[in-house]
Amino acid sequence: MNPIIRYIEENRMERLTYADFIQLALYHPDFGYYMKDDKKIGVDGDFYTSPTMTPMYATIIAKWFIEQVRVNQLPAAVLEIGAGDGSFAQVFINQWEEMTDESLVYILVDESPHHRRLQKDKLSKHHSVELHFLQSLDECHTFSGLVFSNELLDALPVHLVEKKDDCLYEIMITSNQNGLTEVYIPIENQEIISYIEQMSISLYNGQRMEIPLFMDGISASISEVLEKGLVLTADYGYTDDDWLIPTRKDGSLRGYRKHQLIPNILTHAGEMDITHDVHWDSWIRFGEKYGLTFMQKWRQDEFLIASGILDELSNHSGDLFSNEAKKNRDIRTLLMDSGISQSFQLVLQKKNL
User: Fold this and answer.
1) What is the DSSP letter of 209?
2) Torsions phi, psi of 26, nearest 5?
3) Which residue blocks in the chain are alpha helix, DSSP H?
4) What 3-state DSSP class applies to 349?
5) What tens digit of pLDDT does each residue of 290-342 get?
6) Cα dist. 310→302, 315, 328, 333, 335 in Å?
7) DSSP letter at 341?
């Protein structure tokens, strides 16, 4: 039996919220997508990320952070949440060691045991860096430095609502003889009602929207851990001004499997990535609630240019296989109009600086 269907049948109401479904499909210790040992990122996986497409991404952020340490008198310490297979950390640490003799503390947080094993394998040679591999933020004590995440927020569970006949409903998941299906339930969750009121959300009939209640908890956890420093969050998302445009009528929940878009996330549960667009205004407001002051928001290519990526371009002999030529291609990959950076944004917050 499909494990999700079993959970539904064991539930007294015989239904699950979308947030519960996503939590099970991605993070269940036995069948959750992220908890399995299967390859997920890259050509043999299901999706790409900026750090795995090119090392230039982590290189530029490392150089940016070295400058922040100098300007803000920050401790040389990084806390990466959702560190994945350690690809970002590996390049970041290499660049750090190349540019400075200052000791570095690097903390990697990831729920997946498989990812933590990959991280340890990748970083085992960096004896000059104080490394910590954690399962959750709860294991982290007071920290000062940079809190960084790349594509963390889009993979966290969200509730789903829709306006229908001038009423707001929470869309839930149940099962029948054909498998998993949706049901409309008048909103009973007071946290959803409060979120809609606080964010002044107004939907039109037939429009769906993800409700990221998790943002309250993760903002609180980051603020509780962070004594002094910066929070740099990279992801793809939208703002208050975007949510009423027609292309967002059906919300943004979707899956990726073998690099193919799967619009219906109720299929292939536990076998594909599930993602949604991040509502940046909510992230900023929750941060302000817990003392994380908003500083700036960039499109990813704008951040990279402001941080000096164009200075990395170099002349080369014409040898297309040289390191210089490869680095130039990597930079163009990040900056070209049709590239990944056009869809990503970075948000910077601070605390006690």
Assistant:
1) E
2) -100, -35
3) 3-10, 18-27, 50-53, 56-72, 87-99, 113-123, 190-198, 214-225, 280-289, 300-306, 323-335
4) strand
5) 999 999 999 999 999 999 999 888 766 566 667 778 788 888 888 876 667 68
6) 11, 12, 9, 12, 10
7) G
Residues near 172 by beta carbon (within 8 Å), at least 6 away in sequence: 15, 16, 17, 18, 182, 183, 184, 185
At 148, list the tokens: 């960084």
Tell which residue, 234, 238, 243, has the closest CA to residue 302. 234
Residue 327: the pLDDT is: 82
Residue 269 neighbours by CB distance under 10 Å: 25
Tokens of 342: 């056009």
Given this model, what pLDDT does residue 241 score? Answer: 86
pLDDT tens-digit map of 111-151: 999 999 999 999 998 888 999 999 999 999 899 999 999 99
The type of residue at 20 is D
pLDDT digits (tens, 9 = 90+) for 212-221: 999 999 999 9
Sketch out the chain's domains with CATH numbers.
Answer: 3-17+157-207 (no CATH), 35-155+214-236+277-351 (3.40.50.12710)
Residue 353 to residue 229: CA distance in whole angstroms: 6
Q: Which one, of 221, 220, 213, 167, lies nearest residue 190 by Cα?
A: 213
Name 272's Cβ contacts closer than 8 Å, sequence gap at least 6. 33, 46, 255, 256, 257, 262, 265
Give the C-alpha separation, 91 to 87, whole Å: 7
pLDDT tens-place string over residues 20-69: 999 999 999 888 999 888 777 666 666 677 777 789 999 999 999 999 99
CB-CB contact of 153 with 215 (8 Å): yes
